[in-house]
Write a structure and sequence with these properties.
353 residues, alpha/beta, 8-stranded mixed sheet, 10 helices, 10 strands, 42% helix
């Protein structure tokens, strides 16, 4: 994860221009699939993405246990921040888990189980977990932070270029060991080392100006812990995310009006317009209306209806954009079925976030 400074623009001008050009080129190429003048109206949809691993479906109520101690040297004298660092792992974890339909967190405050440097490599034992969870009937699993390590270049690597002046990078490497204990089956079901590297860039007319733009080491370390907690949540929990779809807007007054309704979040009014054209005599407009009906169905998380409308669009005008959308929807349906089986209830009943 790269966190650029406001002053780092001179290194990015060319790349930013190329990104803009590539984006415009993609829209232009996409528009070539259509005949005539067709505008593309972006809409955002909420998508429930699967976790990277599948946990048992009966795990729902979980507790958090902080059994972590910092590993490695403390050259910058940040040892006093250790409790704050470990707390931010859980803060990042909770920020994501609270948006997931899979878990109900029993308490946002982790249970702290202390350990010393002498036994820093010893994992938590099951007897200690069971002591914490007196009533195992109401808790299904424990998420445990065992150890962590934060490494950084000290303080900042500063370079000089005759063309760009002074510039530097602060690098923070973060490693954290996570475990999940299944209380019902009395066993650990995940043992994972989460690793990531964050970068901060800055430039200026002097070394001090570069340093002044950099975050303090303890601030950078805290941010890396927060980010690592979020990344582990993505490993174990299905999470809502935003994806972009495109509505097709040909040179037609009705389609323009439908877009206005969408922008006002009046989807039912827009659907009425598209439905009329979907069964009209103009095949070009009918194909686009069916495509837009598919997007609208996906917005309402009705994947089967979206597939039906996308297939109708392809049958009317066998365009590649409709074929590609069908493939995307088929993948979404497969993932949704997998999560339905994992969560033991229909994802169709879950509210959009």
């Amino acid at each position: 994860m790269r966190v650029p400074s406001d002053r780092y623009k001179k290194f990015k001008i060319f790349s930013d221009e190329m990104k803009i050009f590539r984006g415009a080129l993609q829209i232009f190429v996409f528009s070539l699939f259509f005949t005539g003048c067709v505008l593309l109206e972006p809409v955002n949809i909420q998508v429930l993405n699967p976790p990277r691993i599948n946990l048992p479906a009966d795990i729902h109520h979980v507790i958090l246990i902080n059994h972590a101690i910092r590993i490695g040297e403390d050259r910058a004298g940040l040892r006093a921040d250790d409790s704050l660092l470990s707390a931010n792992y859980f803060a990042g974890l909770l920020q994501k888990l609270h948006t997931s339909p899979s878990f109900a967190i029993v308490s946002d405050t982790p249970m702290i189980v202390l350990k010393t440097q002498a036994n820093r490599y010893l994992g938590i034992d099951t007897a200690t977990i069971l002591q914490i969870v007196v009533d195992t009937q109401s808790v299904d699993a424990a998420i445990i932070l065992e150890n962590y390590q934060v490494l950084y270049n000290e303080p900042v690597e500063i370079h000089f270029s005759a063309e760009y002046g002074y510039y530097g990078t602060l690098t923070v490497e973060n490693s954290s060991l996570w475990k999940i204990y299944d209380l019902k089956n009395k066993k650990f079901i995940d043992d994972y080392l989460q690793k990531d590297t964050l970068f901060w860039d800055a430039s200026g007319n002097s070394e001090q100006e570069v340093i002044d733009q950099m975050p303090q080491l303890h601030t950078a370390a805290i941010q890396s812990c927060y980010y690592a907690g979020m990344k582990y949540a993505e490993r174990i929990a299905p999470l809502w995310d935003v994806e972009r779809r495109m509505l097709l807007v040909p040179n037609n007054w009705d389609f323009y009006k439908a877009v206005e309704y969408v922008q006002q979040n009046q989807w039912l009014n827009a659907i009425e317009i598209w439905r009329k054209h979907a069964y009209g005599k103009n095949k070009r407009l009918a194909a686009m209306a069916c495509y837009n009906m598919a997007v609208a169905s996906e917005v309402f998380d009705n994947i089967d209806a979206a597939l039906d409308w996308a297939a109708k669009s392809y049958l009317i005008k066998n365009k590649k954009y409709a074929e590609d959308y069908i493939h995307l929807l088929e993948k979404r349906k497969e993932v949704k079925l997998q999560m339905h089986l994992q969560l033991q209830h229909s994802v169709d009943s879950l509210p959009l976030q």
